């Protein structure tokens, strides 16, 4: 005996995509990154970095180094703060986070 299951051969209805509930998703999705230099502060230690001003994505980060006779040396905190006093300082928990917290304007 062949029993016919009613939903087996039916074509499912098309479901439209709805807008996301996240308010920042539109600004994060389609934009050209506008990077800005900053100092990332992790556990009271500064790192040179750049981040996107639109979505907050961290593009790159480096140690604060200075060339010397034998190669490179890492700058002490006080020297970094005085040398890069014009850069914005952003405190984050971990160096491997992908985004910095943006200020609500």
SSE layout and pairings?
Elements: H1 25-29, E1 35-42, E2 45-52, E3 58-62, E4 65-68, E5 71-74, H2 77-83, E6 88-91
Parallel strand pairs: 1-6
Antiparallel strand pairs: 1-2, 2-3, 4-5
Strand percentage, roughly? 25-35%
**Main sheet record:** 4 strands, mixed
Number of helices: 2
Stretches where pLDDT is under 50 for at least 5 consecutive residues are: none
Q: What is the chains' assembly state?
A: single chain
Strand order of the largest sheet: 3-2-1-6
Which sequence of SSEs, written as H and E, runs from N to C? HEEEEEHE
Give an account of the 3D structure:
- The protein is mainly beta.
- The chain has a domain at 33-91.
- The protein has helices at 25-29, 77-83, and strands at 35-42, 45-52, 58-62, 65-68, 71-74, 88-91.
- The strands form two sheets. It has a four-stranded mixed β-sheet with strand order 3-2-1-6, with helices on one face. It has a two-stranded antiparallel ribbon with strand order 4-5.
- A hairpin with a 2-residue loop joins strand 4 (65-68) and strand 5.
- The longest helix has 7 residues, at 77-83.
- The protein is elongated and about 75 Å long.
- The mean pLDDT is 80.
Outline of the structure:
It contains 2 helices and 6 strands. The chain has helices at 25-29, 77-83, and strands at 35-42, 45-52, 58-62, 65-68, 71-74, 88-91.
Keywords summarizing the entry:
four-stranded mixed β-sheet, 2 helices, 105 residues, mainly beta
